[in-house]
Design goal:
The chain is an alpha+beta fold and 532 residues long. It has 4 domains: 14-116, 2-Layer Sandwich (Phosphorylase Kinase, domain 1); 123-295, Orthogonal Bundle (Transferase(Phosphotransferase), domain 1); 304-347; 363-524, no CATH class. Helices cover 54% and strands 10% of the residues. The protein contains 18 helices and 12 strands. The strands form 4 sheets. Strands 1-2-3-4-8-7 form a 6-stranded antiparallel sheet. It is globular, with a radius of gyration of 28 Å. The two termini are 24 Å apart. Residues 1-6, 188-199, 302-309 and 313-347 have low confidence and may be disordered.
């Protein structure tokens, strides 16, 4: 079986008996979206095909999708299951601001999801091209509409988990519609905590609990993503990703800019509130958000984290008996955003405990493992880029030298086989880097729970401080590790290969067409039309 000459299906292909594909409008890591013509209802529709790039290929003659190699079979079936889950989720929803399922077609070794064609573009288009022309009243109305959609979903136990500008489309009346439920989590599937492996998400818009894998996922998770999206719509600048904010939060509060932004202070304050890194500082339901909006207040939530910090300080007071520490507590009460552990550093206790913990878990060696693995991956990318460059040079010269039809067909087959081999090579190399990293990582304790199990406090003060210090170190190591995984999540070299291979294919196709025309001219005289 040959690898496909292109990833997407060609224009004019029929999906099922009624949908004629017109053109591709989007490609992601897990699927391809087309505009299609519904020949029965005589209207345009959107068709999403499950096509997880990097792990599957398409036969050029039949269009059938198969795993790129046998070992990718489970990953491909998992991608199909994600699409099935998205279809099941959407099939049970009926709301004007949530995209609907029109039809489902199975074929070509994959599944196609047919949805209405939303002709108004996306919120991303609005932000990129005409953000400053959007009136505050219009943007506020869009926000209220989407909150209504979220209430409908959340009441049914569904969390979207991937709200971002590109996943908010507009119909022909410019009403917002929420799309792409591939990462949605149903109540029946929800666990106590989430991990980064449970569905895909967009890092710049994802809540901290999604990126770190720590903490419960719920309505507040969608509120974070929606608020970040609106921050970008209002300011034109997306905030930093949540994991970067966990290290140092430099996001400017919207409410402090109310006078120049043109929105009500209540609206901006609620967006600020729902961009909080702590889940318990965000609204817990749409009803609470709208109630606060109406009353011009912020949610009065029990600050669990602050309560724990106060207990920690109270324990330190009791053990140490230092009257001077009360000044630290008084300062902390005035500004609860200050980390009390940093205030305690004046006693020298925290620094000593951090050193003890990091030495005990070999944190420096773990950081070196992350750095070395990332360096190995980046070096591998350069090697792959060089292979692709040499392939392009070799086949460009070969295409220029084609003089007969049969030579062109032979070269086409050779190019297909070369691409298939390189895709497998790149995937194997990258998988080896990931596998080596995970094997080495298994010997380290990097979660807060693992660290506390491995190391015991040496005195009563450390016993009080240990949980918070271990959590702080675990978050820092998680951020360090995330650089490696974020890089490996994107198969840049495979994408480059596919792009360059497509260019070569188009060149070879033009050359073959020219040869056929020339042969036809020699045999039959000047043609009046291109021969088939």
């Amino acid at each position: 079986m040959q690898v496909a000459s292109v990833i997407d299906l060609p224009s004019g292909t029929h999906v099922g008996e009624r949908y004629k594909l017109l053109k591709v409008i989007g490609q992601g890591g897990f699927g391809i979206t087309y505009i299609a013509w519904d020949e029965e209802d005589r209207c345009r529709v959107a068709v999403k095909e499950c096509f997880p790039q990097g792990i599957c290929v398409r036969d050029p003659s039949s269009g059938i999708i198969v795993p790129a190699r046998d070992s990718y079979g489970p990953s491909y079936m998992k991608a199909i299951e994600y699409m099935r889950r998205e279809i099941r989720t959407l099939a049970g929803l009926d709301h004007d601001a949530i995209v609907r399922i029109r039809d489902v077609v199975w074929g070509n070794g994959s599944v196609f999801c047919v949805m209405p064609w939303l002709s108004g573009g996306s919120l991303k288009d609005v932000i990129d091209t005409r953000r400053e022309s959007v009136a505050t009243e219009q943007a506020t109305e869009w926000l209220r509409t989407l909150l209504g959609a979220l209430r409908y979903m959340h009441e049914r136990g569904i969390v979207h988990r991937d709200i971002k500008p590109a996943n908010i489309m507009f119909d022909e009346q410019q009403r917002p519609v929420l799309i792409d439920f591939g990462a949605a989590l149903n109540r029946s599937e929800r666990t106590t905590s989430t991990t980064t492996s449970q569905g895909a998400f967009s890092r710049n818009y994802a809540a901290p609990e999604q990126i770190t894998g720590k903490g419960k996922v719920g309505p507040w998770t969608d509120f974070y993503s929606l608020s970040v999206t609106w921050y970008e719509l209002i300011t034109g600048i997306p905030p930093e990703a949540a994991d970067a904010r966990l290290v140092q939060d430099d996001v400017r509060k919207l409410a402090k800019q109310a006078s120049k932004l043109g929105y009500s202070r209540e609206t901006l304050a609620l967006l600020d509130c729902n961009m909080s890194l702590r889940t318990n500082r965000r609204c817990q339901s749409v009803d609470q958000w709208e109630q606060c909006w109406e009353e011009g207040s912020l949610p009065r939530l029990e600050n669990i984290a602050a309560g724990r910090r106060k207990l920690l300080l109270a324990g330190v007071f009791t053990v140490l008996g230092f009257v001077g520490l009360y000044g630290v507590y008084a300062t902390f009460r005035e500004n609860e955003s200050v980390n009390p552990l940093s205030q305690l550093s004046t006693t020298g206790g925290k620094e000593e405990l951090v050193k003890y913990v990091e030495t005990g878990i070999h944190a420096q060696n773990f950081r070196k493992l992350c750095d070395d693995s990332l360096e190995k991956y980046l070096r591998l990318q350069k090697e792959h880029a060089g292979i692709v460059r040499r392939m392009v040079e070799r086949y460009s010269a070969a295409i220029d030298g084609v003089e007969r039809d049969e030579d062109g067909e032979k070269l086409w087959k050779e190019l297909d086989e070369e691409k298939s081999m390189l895709l497998s090579l790149f995937a194997r190399d990258i998988e080896n880097v990931r596998s080596d990293f995970l094997k080495a990582r298994a010997s380290y304790s990097v979660s807060s729970e693992e660290i506390q199990q491995k190391l015991k406090p040496r005195n009563s003060v450390e016993e009080i401080m240990m949980p918070a210090v271990c959590e702080e170190i675990a978050v820092a190591l998680s951020q360090y590790e995330s650089r490696f995984f974020a890089s490996c999540a994107e198969d840049y070299d495979s994408s480059q290969l596919i792009t360059e291979w497509g260019k070569l294919e188009r060149r070879l196709s033009k050359k073959n067409d020219a040869l056929r025309k020339e042969r036809y001219r020699r045999e039959h005289g000047a043609p009046t039309a291109t021969p088939s």
